[in-house]
Amino acid sequence: MRSHLLNDTTAEHYRRSVTEGVERVAAKLAATDRPFTGVTVDALAPRIERIDLDTPLHDTAAVLDELEDVYLRDAIYFHHPRYLAHLNCPVVVPAVLAEAILTAVNSSLDTWDQSAGGTLIERKLVDWTTERIGLGPAADGVFTSGGTQSNLQALLLAREEAKTEVLADLRVFASEASHFSVKKSAKLLGLSEDAVVSVPVDQDKRMQTLALARELERCEQDGLVPMAVVATAGTTDFGSIDPLTEIAELCDRYGTWMHVDAAYGCGLLASLKHRHRLTGIERADSVTVDYHKSFFQPVSSSAVLVRDARTLRHATYHAEYLNPRRMVQERIPNQVDKSLQTTRRFDALKLWVTLRVMGADGVGQLFDEVCDLAAEGWKLLAADPRYDVVVEPTLSTLVFRHIPAGVTDPTEIDRANLYARKALFASGEAIVAGTKVNGRHYLKFTLLNPETTIGDIAAVLDLIAGHAEQYLGESLDRAS
Ligand SMILES: *Cc1c(COP(=O)(O)O)cnc(C)c1O
């Protein structure tokens, strides 16, 4: 069994195994003609169920064959141009190369004595990001497992910096289009059930700052404490960006922590054309970025950045077995002092290799391409009488719904759209997402693949219309 340990004597086994895996995936990528096979849970579950984990195959090729059957064949492939559903990007090769390296070396970024150079590479990327945001010379941050964790950590810091220790008095303001991790964080942080105040959005799905001002005023009048405002730079549903500068003004006025959730919109930090859409982000106290959404990085790659490095002390605990206090005096850089995690992947390496191979402009150009595609797609939808489209995109998301000719009952339209989404998924020909707008069912394209063309968008719209018409035809038959 020792032959399976990765070490100096097993280099050949390592090379052969990984190469075999890479070959399979490369062949798979070349052969996928749709994002999904359409397999059902009922069809797949027994194939996985019947594998006896206590009876190993002892043979890599056989295991890879089996993996084809239980995973690779029916996986959802984000690189396919007709995968248009959630905030998943196709990944760039330099990042995948880095992933293979970081897994094999297996550094853990908690302490210097487990990661040496990795610690400095991560710190340099944090500095690179805070400079792009414009957070100033005292800024810092740390890589996290994702936007959810970044938001949680940012709100933890905000809670600790708040002007009261009475948790029940704290309020967090976020738009009604903000990510659910804000509410989840509030719960984990022990805030009261009604701590997150939902601020209405305008017709472009941006936080209404007049309403925010009213809510902040009311909060103070009620003797409560505004702990943080969460501005979203790229809402998950619409890609809309809250008015960051106006929100920063209000945060200044009320002495409130400003957190910008740029999990999605962070791609603009590298954009050659649209960086100005993030103006105001430089005034944040903390920022969430998800490189695994708009920097074409594999999951996970995310960071939380802060204006004032000292605020990260709220996540600092010392342990004799890991990061004793004296190490701070000795100036040993232990990233665990800033993180909610202890053992932590060297995810930063993926962004490092990406920037060193492609450059930030290369990444920004890819993100610009999908933003431009969304703008084109919006025109197509707006001109198509079969569709109602919600907001002109700021990033790369399109929210729309099929309006079948001659159908006026909104419930029936809801059903037709729901049916179309499901039927499309089952066909595997394309994958789209769905959401609700003003209580009605809509469909959503999240465009993150520069290989997707306007022709793909047109073709998928035809498929959706076809499925919806089929549903309505059948429902007419049922009625008669
Ligand atoms: C995706 C997303 C998150 C959550 O990020 P994860 O990486 O999925 O944990 C938070 N906020 C926004 C706006 C998002 O789009």
From TrEMBL:
Keyword Cell membrane tagged: no
GO molecular function, one term: pyridoxal phosphate binding
UniProt GO cellular component terms: cytoplasm
GO terms classed as biological process: amino acid metabolic process; carboxylic acid metabolic process
Protein name (record): Pyridoxal-dependent decarboxylase
Highest taxon in the source lineage: Bacteria
Residue positions where N6-(pyridoxal phosphate)lysine is found in the record: K293
InterPro entries in UniProt: Aromatic_deC (IPR010977), PyrdxlP-dep_de-COase (IPR002129), PyrdxlP-dep_Trfase (IPR015424), PyrdxlP-dep_Trfase_major (IPR015421), PyrdxlP-dep_Trfase_small (IPR015422)
Metal-binding recorded as keyword: no
Keywords: Decarboxylase, Lyase, Pyridoxal phosphate
Family: Belongs to the group II decarboxylase family.
Cofactors required: pyridoxal 5'-phosphate
Organism annotation: Streptomyces cadmiisoli
